[in-house]
Amino acid sequence: QVQLVESGGGLVQPGGSLRLSCTASGLTFSNYAMNWYRQAPGKERELVAGITSGGRINYATSVKGRFTISRDNAKNTVYLQMNSLKPEDTAVYSCNARYDDYRGYVMDYWGKGTLVTVSS
Asked: In sequence order, which residues have a C-beta less than 8 Å from that of residue 14 and are 6 or more positions away?
């Protein structure tokens, strides 16, 4: 059974930092692209950052230069370091593991999410 468990969310003041972690089990972690999504109240879910199995990284424009995604395949864990946090970063952050064989087979797994609140 595949599980993705996020941790590290919480309340932080504007300008502060948090590091989110997502640990996976039940899958061959190194074969999966790992992504962080977020969903703010009343808004659609958006991709925040992603890292492929080969280490290619992409960021949403709104977080570029402030957030850093990384992965540790030995620990089956992906991280999201969030610096210079803004109130508009407040959301539930969810971890996604995606396997794509580029021949039509795609598998997605999701964590339950962790709440990040940026407020003074």
From this structure: 85, 86, 87, 118, 119, 120
Q: What is the CA radius of gyration of the chain?
A: 14
**Binning pLDDT at 50, 70 and 90, where does residue 65 land?**
very high
pLDDT band at 102 (very low <50, low <70, confident <90, very high): confident
Give me the phi and psi of 37, to 5 degrees please.
-115, 160
In DSSP terms, 70 is beta-bridged to: 79
pLDDT tens digit string along 35-59? 999 999 999 999 999 999 999 999 9
d(CA 83, CA 12): 11
